[in-house]
Automatic annotation (TrEMBL):
InterPro entries for the chain: Cyt_c_oxidase_suVIIB (IPR008433), Cyt_c_oxidase_suVIIB_dom_sf (IPR023272)
Alphabetical list of SUPFAM superfamilies matching this protein: Mitochondrial cytochrome c oxidase subunit VIIb (SSF81423)
Lineage: Eukaryota, Metazoa, Chordata, Craniata, Vertebrata
Pfam families, per the entry: COX7B
Positions of transmembrane segments: 36-55
Family, similarity comment: Belongs to the cytochrome c oxidase VIIb family.
Organism per entry: Pelecanus crispus (Dalmatian pelican)
Protein name (Swiss-Prot/TrEMBL): Cytochrome c oxidase subunit 7B, mitochondrial
Amino acid sequence: MFPVARAALNLTARSIQRTAVRQAHRKYEPDFHDKYGNLVLLGGAVVFTAVWGYVFTQAGIEWGLSPVGRVTPKEWRE
């Protein structure tokens, strides 16, 4: 390996080791996802279920997926 490349890898490895040591000594504090992650997930599931429940029951969409017998050609207008 070339000396310049070896020195660059060595510097990168040392900075990663320093960062890991620094983070290992830091006291763990819960972040947003630790505090509210499950609530946000459950809230999203509730909204998802409510919206699709409305769509399936109240929106008046006909869910016949096959167009056979329903699509008829119209007269051509010029």
